[in-house]
Amino acid sequence: GILSGVPKSMPSLARAEEIQMRAARVGFDWPTVEPVYAKIQEEIGEVLSAPSPAEREKELGDLLFAVVNLVRWYRVDPEAALRGTNDRFMGRFAYIEQQARKMGRELTSMSLEEMDALWVEAKHLQNGHNLE
C-alpha cells in the first residue's frame, strides 16, 4: 500500500508528516486548511473528555497528528519548528535561572508568577525588544 513504505524507525514527528504527505498525494486531504483547525479543536475536546489515562494518551496522539497536519499545510518542517521552539524555551529558562542566581534565589523558592514575569522578560529580549 501507499503507506507501507513509511519506515517505523523514523522519528514519530517526521513519520506523521510522511504518512500525511503520502495520503495527500492520492487525494486523501481536505481542500482547505479550515477543517484542519476544526480537527485540532475536536481532538482537544476529546483529550479533555477522555475517561482514562490510556484513552487520554490515544487522544493526545491524535492531537499531535492533527497538529502535524496543520504544520504540513503551511509547508513548514515540523522537526525544524519544534527544534526552534525547544531552543527558545531553553534560552528563556536559562534566563530565569540566571536572574534567580542574581537575586540569590533558588528556583524552587520562586512562585510561578515570579518565574513567569522573568519568562516574559526573556521573551522580549529574544524578540529584540527593550525591557524599559
Tell me the distance between the termini.
59 Å
The rounded Rg comes to 20 Å
What is the string of helix and strand elements? HHHHH
User: How many β-strand stretches?
Assistant: 0
Portion in beta strands = under 5%
Main beta sheet strand tally, sense and closure: none
Please mark out the parts with pLDDT under 50 across 5 or more consecutive residues, or reply none.
Answer: none
Number of helical segments with 4 or more residues = 5
Structural class: mainly alpha
Overall 3D shape: elongated
**Can you give the helix content as a percent range?**
55-70%
The average pLDDT score comes to: 95
Walk me through the topology.
Blueprint: H1 12-25, H2 34-48, H3 53-73, H4 78-102, H5 112-126
Helix pairs in contact: 1-3, 2-3, 4-5
Fold and architecture overview:
- The protein has 132 residues and is mostly helical.
- The chain starts with 11 loop residues before the first helix and ends in a 6-residue tail after the last helix.
- The model has no long low-confidence stretch (mean pLDDT 95).
- Helix 2 packs antiparallel against helix 3 (53-73) and helix 4 (78-102) packs across helix 5.
- The protein is elongated, with a radius of gyration of 20 Å.
- The protein is built from five helices and no strands.
Keywords for this entry:
132 residues; mainly alpha; 5 helices; 68% helix; 0% strand
